[in-house]
Amino acid sequence: MTKVDKKLELFNFIPLLAIRFYLAPIFIVAGWQKWQNFESTAQWFGNVDWGLGLPFPELLLWLTIAAEFLGGILLLLGLFTRLTSIPLIITMIVAALTVHWQHGWFAIAPSNPSTSTAQFFAWLNIPGAAESLENSVAVGERLQMAKNLLQTYGHYDWLTETGSYVILNNGIEFATTYLIMLTVLLIYGAGRYFSLDYWISRLFLKSR
Fold first, then answer.
1. Are 113 and 169 in contact (CB under 8 A)?
2. What is the DSSP annotation of 104-161?
3. Transmembrane ranges (predicted)?
4. Which of 12, 96, 150, 207 could be cross-linked to 175 through a Cys-Cys bond (beta carbons 3.0 to 4.6 Å apart)?
5. Which pairs count as long-range contacts for 126-133, CB under 8 Å and 24+ apart, including other chains?
6. What's the CA gap between 78 and 24, in Å, rounded?
């Protein structure tokens, strides 16, 4: 290990802390929202016609709430981080497969094929990439038509004052991103100094 490596090693807790603080509010709010809307969410979990069609929807919903809300709090504290990451990883896998998979990769549909990440995969002739680029063209046309209508019949400056319009695709992009980040926490833990796991382990080692 070089001197540079040793010095960088001193700061290896920073990305782990950043991941925890990034993910914690996402999961806490997601779990809280499900808790506050338990009945309607349970119906969506279980309904085979317009929902996910999952078995034991109320039980699965309680498990999801526990994983997200309590898990988010534990991530924030850096307590039982590796253990907490496991049910959250499972939750992300289930969400990706049951909710988002049918919509493809992108969370927000790209409207410009030249800036779409699918362009990279099209260069490699990866199946589905060319179709994704064609879809971007169609998305761009629809988005431009919507903007034209709003500019003609709406107060466009006011409507776009807080941000431009996009087409929500609801693909697996975010779920996969969270899954990758949770896997990092599962492997490396909460990190030093700013986690209860770190201080508990130090106390345990001192007591031995």
1. no
2. -S-SB--S-GGGSTHHHHHHTT-TTHHHHHHHHHHHHHHHHHHHHHHHHHS-HHHHTT
3. 12-32, 59-81, 88-108, 178-200
4. 96
5. 132/104, 132/105, 132/106
6. 10
CB-based contact 111:132 (threshold 8 Å)? no
Which residue carries 């693909």 as its tokens? Answer: 171
Cβ neighbors of 27 (< 8 A, separation 6 or more) are: 67, 68, 69, 71, 72, 75, 88
Other Cβ atoms within 10 Å of 111 Cβ, number: 20
CA–CA separation, 112 and 20 (whole Å): 33
Q: What is the pLDDT of residue 42?
A: 98
Q: Domain extents for the chain? A: 3-105+168-207, 109-166
Q: What is the pTM of this model?
A: 0.93
CA distances from 120 to 106, 116, 117, 127, 172 (A): 14, 8, 6, 12, 18
pLDDT of residue 206: 79
- Given a cut of 70, the residues of the chain with pLDDT beneath it are 208
Q: Which three-class secondary structure state does DSSP give residue 168? A: strand
Token pair for 42 = 């349970």
- Token pair of 147 as six digits: 């903007």
Q: Residue 108 has which token pair? A: 């927000």
pLDDT for the residue numbered 62: 98
